[in-house]
Design a protein that fits this description.
By secondary structure, the chain is α+β, with helices and mostly antiparallel strands. It has six helices and eight strands; from the N terminus they run E-E-E-H-H-E-H-H-E-H-E-E-H-E. The strands form two sheets. A four-stranded antiparallel β-sheet has the order 2-3-1-4. The protein has a four-stranded antiparallel β-sheet with strand order 6-7-5-8, covered by helices on one side.
């Protein structure tokens, strides 16, 4: 069974080891399963136990990422996330054939790259770990202060994100962010490949005033997984 890795336009010449399956104006770029490795039973990623939604092992996911990166460097392509739904080309083909937004996503995303900025603050100490609390009233005051600190950090990250988008508005084609926890910001930015060096330079200047206890990490450029098509999940194929 082939594994679907990306979408290209029909008749695009694919580099080895990819093979194509044409679906209307589009082509599914696929590799044989044994090129990447199987999705193994592992850490659950949100489904019910036994429903097939298990996380791939890290090495398998990295092999998939290297293949998709190689493809996106060779041809204009729209990467698809590595997950159990990608094990059934017929399901992906049916979904692509029935959608009207593929061309819109293609025009916005294909041929571009993603860079991710992470900012990590020290976590807010847990109220339960504060041994100085000796009464119910003190506990409630501490809980209120804890909540205010979380809200302040969230507003700070929101402001930082907006300021960064304004600073790099001429480079960023699309963006979004999330707070994995109140002290952990993760922002994703869609860029032209030729703009990544300029983006990094502006980002270094932007991050210079940050407090010493905020740890920045810049990841990428890599295929724009965060901006690609969202496909409905289907059960993973089991041997």
């Amino acid at each position: 069974m082939p594994l679907v890795c990306a979408l290209t336009t029909a008749n695009t010449s694919l580099p080895a080891p990819f093979v194509g399956l044409t679906v209307g104006a589009w082509q599914l770029a696929m590799v044989e399963e044994d090129v990447v490795g199987e999705i193994l039973d592992g850490e659950d990623i949100g489904g019910e136990e036994g429903d097939g939604h298990d996380a791939p092992d890290l090495e398998t996911a990295l092999r998939h990422h290297r293949l998709v990166s190689q493809l996106c460097l060779s041809v204009r392509a729209l990467p698809l996330r590595y997950s159990p739904q990608l094990y059934r080309p017929s399901d992906v083909a049916d979904d692509i054939a029935g959608r009207s937004d593929v061309g819109t996503v293609w025009d916005r995303v294909a041929g571009r790259v993603e860079m991710v900025l992470r900012l990590d603050d020290p976590p807010v100490s847990r109220v339960e770990d504060d041994e100085s609390i000796t009464s119910g009233a003190a506990y409630l005051r501490r809980r209120a202060a804890h909540y205010r600190e979380q809200q302040a950090r969230q507003r700070r990250f929101e402001t930082l994100h907006d300021d960064l988008v304004n600073k790099c508005h001429d480079l960023i084609r699309a963006q979004h962010y999330k707070l994995r926890q109140p002290h952990c910001y993760s922002g994703s930015f869609l860029l032209e490949p030729s703009h990544t060096a300029t983006f990094e330079a502006r980002l270094r200047d932007f991050l210079r005033p940050l407090p010493d206890d905020t740890t920045p990490s810049l990841l990428g450029p890599w295929p724009p997984y965060s901006f690609t098509l969202e496909l409905p999940p289907t059960p993973a194929r089991r041997r």
